[in-house]
Amino acid sequence: MEYTVTKTTESGSSWLTWVSLGVMTYVYVVGELSHFLLGIVSRPMSQELHYGDHACLPNPQVPEQSPECRTLNSSSCGNLLEEDNNTTCVWDYSGLGLDYQVLAGPAFVAVFTTAGVIIGFISDKFNRKVVVTVCCGVLTLATGLTGAAMNYWQLVILRMTTSAGESAFTPACSSMISDMFHESQRALALGIFNWGIYFGYGLSYAVGNFITAANIVDMGWRWSYIVTGMMGVVATLLLFLVVKEPPRASQAEVTQQPPRITSINEFSKVIKADPADIDTEFTKIYNSKNDVSSPTGSRLTEGLLGEESGPKAVVKALLQPAVLVLALAACIRHTAGFSWAYNTQLYFLTYYPNFNIGLWVMCASIVGGSLGVAVGGFVSDRLVKKLGVKARLYLIATPFAAGVLYFPPPGCFFILLGSYVFAEMWFGVLFAVLLELVPKTVQSTSIAVFLFVMNNIGGNVPVIVDPLSHLLTYRGALYVMYPGMYLVKPTCLLAPSPVQSVLIDSGKPSTRP
Questions:
Q1: Which residues pair with 293 in a beta bridge?
Q2: How far apart are CA 426 and CA 127, in angstroms?
Q3: Which residue has the higher pLDDT, 295 or 364?
Q4: CB neighbours (10 Å) of residue 54?
């Protein structure tokens, strides 16, 4: 049997392929909106459901929110009075504390990473479009029900269910995109898909701030989750109606041909063999021809898809030195990102209570993050071929991240824009590089395991923001966990080591699609 593959050209992606990419990106938007909405509405949510720390907060009933309140304790909090004798400050739930950090991090990450590995394995074996559609429905239901939660433990359960639904999006959709697009377009397509992170994160500030403030039918923050659930219904329907499951390995066309001798050397081997061994020699010739051409013309020789599958193949792929370095850097980068994302709203409420950050953070995230990912995806296939992965490692966002915490608004948001542009160039190419390093037959599972490690570390380590804030200050803790972690990531990657050279070599042109 001989396998041939129809070669996909750079212009071969149809309009339906790009529409499907748009639908999957929208699904990712809804998932990230649901993911990060908690950090925006945590204060009103905690005040209604009674969880987390107490603090002296500006009285929302007075026109000017005083930043002095954060320096007062429980006994002095009510001593400041307005002209109408209303208290300037009130002692109430702040939305911070260990309960919040656990809800934001471990409660989400524990299920997200575990379910991601399981769903990644399922996606490698079954229809990925069906898997993503079902998971999107689960996320939609859990998000809508969060708007009806009546206590902290209901929030925990629904948060875990939401994470189980979103866990399918990256491994399954990345694998589908890899099969939909030619190698020259793949990084760009993955970059566009990753726009979902920043559109979703940015929209969470608009939805969480403005819909909560609208106080629809006196339900406040609850309508933020209800609206997000409605968006999830649309996402689920679009997945079901528009997206088609792409053939794996870019549509391998299988044709069976009898084994045939095509060289003098092969003929010589057959005629010199004993009569009893002729069949064996034919089999050897047959197997040597049983290979597959990839969509980009490279030759693959192990199985129908050219590679082994199963747990051993996953372990082998993930234990490559280059993948281990990528995992280390991704964990550090994720720790910085989550430390900031989970505390952005509460940081500005603490230090700048009079400034409404809704539109500012939304615009900085969507424009900066999306631009960084898009540019990173667009240039990766070009820069890497000339300079290797090392070319991307010099894009350091540390000074920008530090500036966000140092300068007051609105200036800090222009600095935040720069931080997103530079920091997210790394994230925009991360999965493109990972897909180059792991076999196609275990891509979904490998990505899921990679996410398991990255999110378990990056998503749980930010819990220490709370004890650090007691040891230092809230801002000081964020200095350590946000720009501090950005500084560590390029340091560990650029330090001379045998592993670094492997990573740089992995950025050279690949023979695998």
A1: 299
A2: 30
A3: 364
A4: 14
Question: Phi and psi dihedrals of 300, rounded to 5?
Answer: -120, 145
Supply φ then ψ for residue 424, to 5 degrees. Answer: -80, -10
The half-sphere exposure of 152 on its side-chain side, counting CA atoms within 13 A, is: 15
CA distance 486 to 333: 6
Kindly list the distances between the CA atom of residue 30 and the CA atoms of 144, 229, 236, 330, 339, in Å, as whole numbers in the listed order.
12, 8, 10, 23, 21
What are the tens digits of pLDDT across the range 70-112? 778 888 887 776 656 678 888 999 888 889 988 988 888 888 8
Q: How far apart are CA 403 and CA 411, in angstroms?
A: 9
Q: Which residue has the tokens 């966000």?
A: 404
For residues 87 and 76, give the distance between their C-alpha atoms in angstroms, rounded to a whole number.
Answer: 11
| The two structure tokens encoding residue 331 | 């964990």
**Please, what sign has the CA dihedral across residues 46, 48, 53, 58?**
positive
List strand residue ranges (DSSP E) for 248-393, in order: 252-255, 292-293, 299-300
Cβ neighbours, 10 Å, residue 354: 12
Backbone angles phi, psi at 255, to 5 degrees: -130, 140
* CA gap 48, 156 in Å, rounded: 15
H-helix or E-strand spanning residue 78: none
Rounded to whole angstroms, the Cα distance separating 229 from 344 reads 23
Which run of H or of E encompasses 54?
strand 54-58
Structure tokens at 92: 């109430």
Nearest to 200 by CA among 369, 337, 32, 358: 32
Q: What is the pTM of this model?
A: 0.73
Within 13 Å of residue 137, how many CA atoms lie on the same side as its CB? Answer: 10
Q: Which two tokens stand for residue 408?
A: 């007051």
